[in-house]
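#structure-requests
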Amino acid sequence: MSHVDALALLIDFLSIAAPRTQQEVKLIEKYQNDNSGEETVTILKSSLRVLTRITGNGTSSLGLHPAVYFYNEKGKV
């Protein structure tokens, strides 16, 4: 995976995992500058909950291992 692909994947994931009140995903360009960092921390905490739900070992987790389920034979997502 190239650096550009990895960055695009990260931006897409963070956009989807960010807490929101409406159904539509808020694009990264739509966010205002976060001078205090509060909104950034909120998005990162929400993203961690989503990642834990997908790949964690908890009872509510899907328990998917990234090396097995998220990569093809060439190592790309």
